[in-house]
Protein 1
Amino acid sequence: MTNQQKFGISIKKEEDFSEWYCQVVTKSELIDYYTIKGCYIMRPLSLFIWTKIKDFFTKKIQKLNVQEYYFPMLVTKSSLEKEKDHIENFAPELAWITSYGNVLLDNPVAIRPTSESIMYPCFSKWLRSHRDLPLKVNQWCNILRWEVKSTTPFIRAREFLWQEGHTAFLTKEESDKEVLQILDFYSQIYQELLAIPVIKGIKSENEKFGGALYTTTVEAFIPGSGRGVQAATSHSLGTNFSRMYDIKVTSEGNIGNGIGGGEGGEGGEGKNKSKDKNKTKSKSKDSNTNTKDNPNTNNNPNNTNNNIPLKHSSDSFVHQNSWGITTRTIGISTMIHSDNKGLVLPPKVAMYQVVIIPCGITVGRDSTPLFRYIQTITKEFEGGYVGCGCGEGCEDSMDNTYIKDSKDIKDIKDIKDSKDIKDNTKDIKDSKDIKDSKDIKDIKDIKDSKDNTTHTHTHTHTHTHTHTHTHNHTPQPIRYFLDDKTNVSPGYKYNYWEIRGVPLRIEIGFKELNNNTLTVIRRFDGKKIILENKNIFKKIKNELNEIHRLMYLKALKERDERIIRVESYYRFVEEIENGNCVLVPWCCDKECEEELKRRGGVEGEVGMDSNKDSKDISKDNTRDNKNNTSDNTRDNTRDNTRDDTRDNKNTRDNKDNTGDNKNNVLTTVPLGVKCMCIPYDNEDVSDKKCFNCNKSAKSLGLFGRSY
C-alpha cells in the first residue's frame, strides 16, 4: 500500500461530499467510529479544538459573571411533562432508563436531551427575592438524543458535547440584552477562532426553540454540500418556563411602579403560594404586564434606587434565557476549510501550529549540527507568543484587527444584487410584524464586546520560559512538533501531517543550515516561503495570522457567491436545486412556512446524503472499524441523480424574469428546505410581495437546505 493510499483522501470533495467528509474526519484522526450508531470517539486532535473553544467562551461569559455548575444527567418524567410544548420536539429522541439489572423501575428516568427540566425546579427553590437576581448558570456536559434521522460526525450525532447557559432576570430588558451579547460571543468563536463567517438572525416562528419567546441564531453555509447549518443559538424564554416551574421572586417598589401593579394580595416573603394556584399565576401575570413600558421600573439590585423607601411587594415571574453551542463547531470548520488532501485547521485551534521536519539526514552524515540549528529555532518558539491584538502574542485573540479594519472585509460588495449579510447585529425593522409578538420589538442593538483598550505589558524571561502579562491574557508559545523519526522518509511525514491539517510545515536540511534559513510551506494554500532565521518567532506569528485572515476571506467569498437574491417561487426552487441558499421577500407568516414544508414533503432538517434519500453515513463504519455492529451498516447505494452542475452560477442575473409564480411549472419544494433565519442585517421590502403566497412582504428571509 502506498503512502497516498494509506494516508490520503481517495474521494474528491466535489465528487462525493459525504464520503470525502467521512474520510477526512477519520483519516485525520479527529474521530473514530464506535460500535453504537451515532456515537463517535473524539480523539486528541478534536478534543483540543473543543478545549480552545471552551477556553475562549469561558473568558467571555466570566466577564458577564456567569458561574459554572454541573447538574445530573437524569430527568424525571413528571418534570418533563411540565413542559410539553418544549419537550415535544425531543420526545422521539428521548432515551429512557426503565430498569436496572432485572428490576423494572416504577418511575423511569430519561437521559437529558437538554437541561431546562433539570435546572428549573432548582431555580424555583433558589430564587426568593429580586435581590437573588440575576442568576447566571453555565455547564459543559454531554447530551443524548436518540437521533432517528441520518447521523453525521459532529453535525448530527446521538451523543455530543455542548455548553448550555441558563439565566434568569427580573426584567425583559436585561434578558433581551444578554440574548444578543451571547449571540455576539458565538459569532466571535466562529470568526476569531475558526475563521468562519456566520449570519446573525432570528428564527422563524416554526423554527424557534420549543417554548421560547424568540430564538436568535448564527447560521453557516457549507459550499461543498450546498447546505446551511445552525451554528449556535441564543433563546429568550420570556416567562414561559418560569410559569411552568413556578420561578418567582418577591419584587419591591412604589405602588404603581409596574412590578406588582396593585395586585399586592399575592405578595409576601419568599415563595408563599396561594391555595388557588391558577389564581396566583393569573395575578402574577397581570403584575408583569406594565413592566416594559413603565419608565419608573428599575429593580436592578445594583441600582441605588433600591434604597428608596418601599411601599409594596409582589411576586413576579422571572425572565429567562438559554443559549448553547456544540461540537458541531468542529464539523462546520472541517467541512468549510478542508480540501482533497485532508484536514485544514485554523491556526488558533490547531494542536500543532507548526511541524518541523529535518531533511537530508543520511547514514554516515553527522546530523548533530542540523539538530543544534533546529534547537535554536524551537527555543525561540517556546519563548515567544502567538499574538493577541495587543501585539505581544497572547493567543486569546491573535491579531484580529483585520476583522474590524481590513478593507478586504468592508469593501466586499452586494451578494447578487442584494446587500451583503454582514456580521454585525442590527434591529430588524418592524419585528413586531415578523414575530406577531410585541415582545420582540424591544431587542436592542448590541455591539461586539471587543476589548480595544491599550494594554501595558511586562515580560519576565526565565529558563523555563515564563512570562507575565499585566492584561491577564494567558501567554502561549507557538505550538510545534518536531518529527525526528528516522524509520520513515520526509515524504511520508509530509503526507502524514498534511492530512492532519497542521497550518505550517517547516523543512530544515543542510541547505537551510548553511544559508541560515527555513523553508516554510503553508497547508492552507501550499505556498512555499524561504525565511531568514532572524526574528523567526515574529515571522512565523505573522504567517499564522495571515493564514487565518486568508481562510476567513476565502470562506466569506465562497459563501457570498452562493447566497442568491430572488423574488419568485420559480427562481427560489431553481436556486435551491443548484445548491445555493436564497434571500427572498417573505411575509414571515407561520402558515406560509408550513405550506412550504407540506409541498416539500418534509418536516425540517435532513441528514447529510443526497437530495432524495437520507442515509446514515455511519455505513463507513463497516470499512473503517471492523468491530462495528450490523446496526451501523446501511445501504451503500449512492444517489447519483443530483445535478451537480452549477454552470455560470456566479454570473447569473439574479433579477426575477419569471413572472407570476402560479404560472410556473416547478411546484415542489426541494427536500429539506426551510427558513434558516431572518437576517438581522435586512432591508425594506414593504413594496415587495411574498415569494410564496403573494402577500405583502415584511422582511428578507434566508432559505436553504439545512443539516
Protein 2
Amino acid sequence: MQIMSSITEKPDWDKKVFDEEITSKWRKEIAESGEDVSPKMMDWIIKELQWKSESFKKDGRVKVFDVGVVKSDTAISQELQKALKEAAVPFEDVPEDQKDYHPNSDQQVVDLVHPSLFPVIFGRSRILPDRTINLETCLGSVGQGDLLPVPSKDHIAHTPRYGYGWRATPREYSQKFQWLPCDVEFTEDAGCRIVSYINNAHPVKHRGLYEVVEKIITQAVPLWNETLAYRPYNERRIQYNSIDYEEDVIPEPDGQESDEDDDAYEERWQTYRNSRRFIQPEPAEFTPPNLERWGLINLQEAFAEEGLQVIVKLANIELTPEKPNYAGGSWHIEGQLNERICATAIYYYDSENITESTLAFRQRSEDNFEDVGYEQDCHEFLQAVYGFGPEVDSRNDTNVTQHLGSVVCKEGRLLTFPNVVQHCVSPFSLEDKTKPGHRKILALFLIDPHRRIISTANVPPQQEDWGMERQNLVTDLLANNLPPELQVMVEKDMPASFLTMDEAKAYRLELMEERSVASEVSNAAFETGNFSLCSSWIVTEKLYEQAVYLTKENFDNGVGLPLTAGLFLCHLEEDPAQIAFMRIYYQIPVTGTEDDLAKLAQQVIEPKVCSEREAFKQLMAQDCTAVPHYLGYVEK
C-alpha cells in the first residue's frame, strides 16, 4: 500500500502506469531498494493502479489506504485556496503578544480557530432547551438558556469502540467538556451552508471565513463518502490460509531424551523453529473489486433533511531561524467519545520554506487468526508475514498495531480519513535555515450523522467580547428609552454568563490535561493485545446446512442481504447443547429455539475442525448468498 501511495505522488502517475518502459524502471528501483516486494506483488500494484486511474481521471481523488484514507490535489480550486488565505488574515494580523500560541507547543503552533477554546463546559455553559439559534439570532441569545448539568456516570456508559475485543475506557468520555460543532445544511444546488456559528469565528466580523469553509465542506463530502464506505472483510490482496515453510535447514528434533531436562528440550525445539524460513504468500492475478458489494455512502442523500455537524479548526505551524525544527506530533485519534467524530478532513492550504512532511497512519490489528492454519503456539509467522515486532508471541500482551504508511502533506491537498485509525504528524524543518517558514491547515471534524451532539445551534456564544457587544447595545437602547432607576433594574437582570479570555484559557488547560490522560489510557488500550493461537473451531456439516437454509430463506423472502450472519458452533467435549446457537443481524428473524438447535447439534456423527475461511468457502459453495461471520466461539 505504501508503494502505491508513493507512486500516486508522482506527476501524471495515472498515465505512467500504462507505460511499460516507466513501470519497468519502477520495478527495478523497488527491487534494488531492498523492499520486500516480489515480482507478483509488483504485477498486482501496477494492475491495481491502472484500475484506480480510471476513477482518478474522473474525480481527481484516490484512496491511499483501504481503511479510508483518501487524498485529492484538485478538490479545492486555486481560487478557493486564495480565498481561504485571505479569510485567515484577520486572525493572523494581530500583535505578537496577542497571538494565541497553543499551550506546550514551544510557541510554534498558533491557534486561529480552535475548538478547545470556549467549548461546552458542563456545569458552566448554558443551553437553549426549547429552540435553536442561527447566524442571525446567535448574538442576541448571549446569556440565555439553562445551565448544562454535569452528566452522570450512567449517562456516559460506553460500548466497544474499535472492536477486536478492545473496549473504550471511561476516561475517553468527558464529564467536563465537549467541543462544539456548527450545524451544516445541504442546499438544493448540491452545496453546503453553515447555519450556526463556528465556535471562535465571529458570524459577522468573520463572515468571509464562513463562506469559504462551507465551500470546502462541500468539496470534502465526496471524499468523506469514500472514507466511510465499507469494504467487505474477505477482499484481500493476498490470501493467507496456511503456513508453509521452505525445506528444513536443520532436521526436526527427536523426542525428549530420558536424561534431558525440559529447558534443554525446549531450547532444541526453539532452535529448530527459529531456523525455519516461511514461504511468503503471493497475490493472485489482480481482479477489480466488486463495488456492488461495498457499503457505499452518500451523505447528502442520507442526511438531506438533518444535515451535518462539523467542528472547525484553523491553525498555523510557524518556524523561525531561532526555532527551525518542528518535532512532530503523537499518535492519536481525534476528540473524545462524547464528541462522536467519525471522520476528519485536513486541507493544507499554505506551506512555505519547509521540508517535506507526512501524516502517518496505524491501525489496531485483529488479534485472532482463526482463518490461518497454524501449529499450536506457533507465532513466528506474525513477524515474518504480518510484520509485527520481535516481541510478539502467542501468550503475552504485546503491541498489536500495524503501520499502514504515510501520506505527504503538500500544499493544496485535501486529505480525509476515518476516526478509527491513529495518525501522527512527522517532524519537519526549515528548508532555508536563514528564513522563516510555515504550514497552515484547515481541519474539519465530521460528527457521526447518526448520533448528533450539542452544537452551536443549542449553546449561545460564550465569548466575553461577543457578549459585551450585545450588552453595550442594550445599554444604549435603555439609556434612550428608560429613566435611570429602571435602567439599573434591567441591567441587574441581564445575564452575564460569558467567559473572559483568561477564564477560557484556564479551562483550555484543564481540557488539555484531561485529554492527555485519556489519550495515554486510550493508546495503551489501542496498542495492547494478545494473539491467542491455541484455539480451534468445531463446526458441523448439519449446522452448515441449517445456517445456509435460514440465511437464504430470509434473503429470498425479501428481507435484504444480511450484513453479518452467525454460524452454529458446537462444543463437543462435554455437552453439545451448551453452546449450540445462531445469531443473524440486520433484522432477519431466526426460526427455532436454542433447544431445537441443540437437538440438531446432537445429530452430528463426526465433527469437522476447520478455519473460518474454510467455513466461508463451504457456505458459498452451497449457494449461500449472504456473507457469514463468526460472532462468538468456545475454545476446545
Protein 3
Amino acid sequence: MSSSTALLPKDRKKTDHTLVSLQFIVSVYLTGSLILIANYDVEQNQIGWSTVHFIRGSPFFPFLAAGVQWLVLIPNNQSVVPGRFEYYFLDPEVEGWDNASASIMAFAGAANFDFKEVHTNASRPNPTSDTEQDEAEIFLVEGRPSENGRSTILSVSKKGEDVEILPKEYTAAGKIHEYGGGAAFVPHGGRNIIFNDPKTNLVYNLDVSSKSVTEVVTADPSGKVLKYADFHAEVGTGTLAVRETHFEDGTEVRNEIVVIETSSGGASKSTVVVTGADFYSHPRFSPDGKRVCWMQWNHPDMPWTGSELYVADWNDGNLLQGKYVAGKTREQAICQPRWAWDGSLWFVNDPKGIWNLYKWDPTTDGVEEVVLEGYQDVEVGFRELKLGNTTYIQLTHTKWVIAYCRKAVNGLIVYDTVTKDVTELHTELVYVEFHGLARVSDAEFTVIGSTAKTPPALYLIDITKPIEKQLLKSSASIPLPLDIFSPARSISFPKTHGNAGTAYAIFAPPANPDFRGIEGTRPPLIVSIHGGPTSHESPALDLQAQYFTSRGYAYVHVNHTGSTGFNRAYRQELNSNWGVKDVEDTLSCIDYLANEGLIDRTRVGIRGGSAGGYSVLQALVSHPKVFAAGCSLYGVGNLKDLGAKTHKFESHYLWDLIFPPDASDEDKERIMRERSPCFHAQRIESPLVLLQGREDRVVPMGQAVEMESVMRGLGKDVRLVVFEGEGHGWKRGENIRRSIEEEEGLWGRTLVVGTARL
C-alpha cells in the first residue's frame, strides 16, 4: 500500500462513503484508468457520479500505480482558490476523514498572512508634564501569499479592526542582504510611514490619513540599483537608512549609512554619512537628535560572530568622528543598539558567552551590564539576519519590556531600572517575531508572537494583566480546529554520535481526535532541519508540522549544535564541522526517539530548507541506511560553487563553518569536495525531492540542477521541482501549497506501513 496517512478512524464503520464536509459525501472506486466518484449532497438529497481519467505522468499516477484504493477530492468551499479541489491520498484501511487537515492545508497555502513588522506612532511621555498622550496608532506590515507574496501595511485598532492603508500598486519590504527586514518606519507622534518598495527600489512616504504615496528617493540616473532599509528619524533630523548599492559592471556591492533629507520644495537627496566597513545596521538618532549610533562588521564575520558598536555627534547634517563603544571582531557580537529616553545607549553583547543587555553612559563614557536577576542564563539578543530587529523596548522612563530566549523558547519580562525588579509576563507566548515589539502606552505594547496552540498573531498586552492578552489580528484567515493540534515539546537528548554532550529538539507526536494509529506499529518520523544553520526552531505552533502530525506522522525539529537560543559556545561548536555535527545530532535524536518508543526507526524521512537542505543531502550521503527518503528545499549541494556565487552578505559565512582556522588552500579544496553532497551522490539510496526557487540569489538554482543531474545520471530516484518567480523560500500561496503536496507525496510512498523502498 502507499499512502500519505498512517491513521485509522477511531470508530471504524463498514461503509462505502467518506464524509468530507457538511455538504458532500464522496465515494471513490478505481476501475482501470478511470476513477468513479459518487457525490452525495446532504441538503439536496441527491447522488451524482463523475469520472476522472489518470495517465502516466499525472499527479495521481504514482499513487494509483502503487495500489492506492482511495482518493478523496474535497470541494474547496473555503474559497481559497475558487473552483479548485483539494486532493488527499488515503490509506486503504481509512474509511473516514475530517475537515481538519483540509483547514490546515488551506491555512498553509493562500489563506494565511505573514506578519513581518509592527510599528506604532506612540509619543514619548514628558516627565515634567501631566498632559495625557494622544492614542497611539498601530501599524502592521503583512505579507500576503494570496497576492503573490506582496507585503502591505495595515492600520490596526485596539479593538482588533484593521484597514489596509497601502495602495495595491505598492509593496513594503526590504531586500538588503537578500533577507530584508527594516522595511518601514513610523515617526513618534507622526501620521506618515517611510517605506521601501523592492519592485522599484525606491523610498516612499505614505500619508496615513489620505493613503496617498509620494516618492522620497528617486531612481539613480547612472543605472545603479540602490536598496534602502532600516530607517530612523527624530524631530528636525533627516532620515537615516542603510543603503546597499549594486553596480552594473559587477563591482562588489557597497553598504553604507545615508541620511535622506527633504527640502521645503519637496526635493530629496541622500548623503553618505558612514562608509568603509563591509556592513552596517541599526543607524539610530538619539532622542535629542544630537548623536547617532550604528553597528558595523567586516568579512569574514557575520553580525552574530563579531561586530562593533559606534556613536558619533550629529551637527547640522554632518556626522562627526565616530567613537567605538563595544563589540569585538571575531569575538563579540552586538545586537539591537537602542537609545534610552535619558540619552544612554542600550545594546546587547556577548563578552561572557551569552547575549545580555548593556548600556553606555555618554556622560562617563562607561559601559555596564544590565543585570536581569534570575535571568542570567537567558539570551536577550537574536541573530541579526534581517535588519530592524526590535525585541526589547522602553515602555516608561523606568520600565523596559524584553523578549528573551531560554533553550529555544521565548518569554517576555518587564525590567524596572529603579528597583532592578524583573517581572515575568505570563502570556503563553513561546515565540516572538524579530521585529515584534512596539510601545503603545505606559502600560501597553504590541507583540507579534505564537503560542504552542495558536498560529502567529498580533496581540496587545497590558503589563498589569498580561494573561489577558488581547488578540488584534491572527495570521489565520480561516478557523482552525484546535483539538487536532499536537502540542510540541522541547526535548534534550544525549549525543550518541560524535562527541559526547547534549543536543536539543522540538518534538510533536501524531495526533488526531478522529483517528488512531495502526495497531502494533509505531509512527513514522519526519525530521526537519532548520536553516541558517545559525538559527533555531521553537515549540510555537507550526502548521506544516501539524498538517503531518494530524495525518499520523511524528515530527521533530532538531536544534543541532550551532543553533541559536542557547549560548555562544553552542553556536560556535559547529565551526569547522558543518555537515558533520548537525548530521550527528540528527542521528542522536532519532536514536533517542526510537529508544523511547516514540517512533519507528525504519520509517524516517528527513527534510530541511537552505542550510537545512544541505544537512539533508549530507545525511543521505553519509548515512544512506537510516533514511527512507529526503526532501531538500533550496539546499546546498556544492560548497565551492556556493562560495563563488552566493551574495555578499554570506560570501564568507562558509569559511568558519567548514574550515579549521589553520586550513591551507589544499586543505580547503579537499574539505569542500569531501563535504559537497553532489560529489558523493552515488552513496544515496533513498528517493530525493529537490524544491527550488528560480530567482534564488542565496542558494542559486544551479545547486539543485547539478544535484538532480548527477543523481539522474546515476539512475537514482530524484525529482526536481522549480518554482517560478520565487527566491529563497516561498511567498506565493499556490507555491506554499504545492511544496507541502510534493512532500506529502514523497512521505506517502516511502514512510507508510507496507510501502516499498523504491
